[in-house]
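Chapter summary example.
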Amino acid sequence: MNQTVVILDFGGQYNQLIARRVRECGVYCEVLPYHTPVEKITEKNPIGIIFTGGPNSVYLENAPACSREVFELGVPVLGICYGLQIMAQMLGGHVVSPDSREYGKTQTTFDTTCPLFAELPAEGITWMSHTDYVDRMPEGFCATAHTAACPTAAMQHTKKKLYGLQFHPEVLHTENGTKILHNFLYRVCKATGDWSMGGYAQHTIDAIRSKVGSGKVLLALSGGVDSSVAAALLAKAVGPQLTCIFVDHGLMRKNEGDEVEAAFADKGMRFIRVDAETRFLQKLAGVSEPERKRKIIGEEFIRVFEEEAKKIGKVDYLAQGTIYPDVIESGAGDAAVIKSHHNVGGLPDHVDFKEIIEPLRLLFKDEVRQLGQELGLPDYLVWRQPFPGPGLAIRVIGEITKEKLDILRDADAIFREEIAKAKLDRDIHQYFAVLTSMRSVGVMGDSRTYDYTLALRGVTTTDFMTADWARIPYPVLEKVSNRIINEVRGINRIVYDITSKPPATIEWE
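The structure predicted for these 509 residues follows.
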């Protein structure tokens, strides 16, 4: 068993980021709702507890609050933003809403005798995002940081090992923020750093083997990062007892279907590739409304999967590539490696199985990629660009045809190839091409053309909830544009999308 830190979620926007930072420090953590009973927290045997931020004011009626018993466990607690304020309020301090507020980068002065700020400069920039602050600390606490507007930018009760930060150490804008969290974990909680992807892989493989025994496992393999890593992990665990059904709906990027098949051809599992392109295109014929496209593709995918699964007969376990952000966002809170059967929207109704296995449901996306590398998956799968379930159907604006899909496949492949050549593929978090429904006049040689306009999209983001458009160098964009115009028939104009999210979404449809 790994040492565990429990993160109590009070509804803040950076909560998943806190968990990711803790794990980056080599410490396992789980995110639980703030109202989790103290008995359930003690079951985790935590070495530390972190309170997240939140959008509420602690002095309002029905403000989110944890059990007071949390402070009596003898376990170190770190409150961040709202977490600091609720700690102060519950322990007898006072929180006010002053005339001035603090948002953004703020010059902060630290008491470096505090364990959280050990070996840090006495001054630095922190990321503030608060309306309220603590104007009177509870008995036994002292301030360990301040700003021009906030006298209690941090506080501590050394004897009880209770600490609070008004700023957000988890965001990159806070200088030495990860070091502050590291200090809490290692200096206060006495962490040993026993969380590693190699250890997780072996533990999960052993758990799956123990659970499955001689049973059969069925997985719908989409070819995306999550399902591919889940397939590789399950193959290591149960080998020929695993059947993967890869529904090739004809809406994937160039050569992806063949790449997925090649990656899993020798993994010791049973791999079934279903060529369903004609079937999907027939269902999509004449449909241009984005949500209708999504619904048709989702429903048809399940039908094809069910038909293939029936040919196999009874299976004992259905596997899914659920990852930890899905668990947190659903409010489930309790993350186990293998989970008993439950109703999840979109599961096939007519596949006979008794339980669900979700081997990735403890991992964040970046950890899934690390696990994929640990398992020896090729880079083209591990570092595959995020891809929507409906595939290129929602990157072809308007009605779907085989011709439009092929045009987009070729153009998108060139874009991705040049981004990789420029060594920008790890810096730009998502990039792709969109075939618009707009045609415009162009000139090629001495001839007039009337062809499609292609849009290029690239964004940088930490959580995909917000995103900024990527500043791709002009020479790279120029080369991409020239190649697409010269090599792909049917396109005579290239545009680059410079809209952030919000107000736009990352995908066009």
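To summarize the output: The mean pLDDT is 89.
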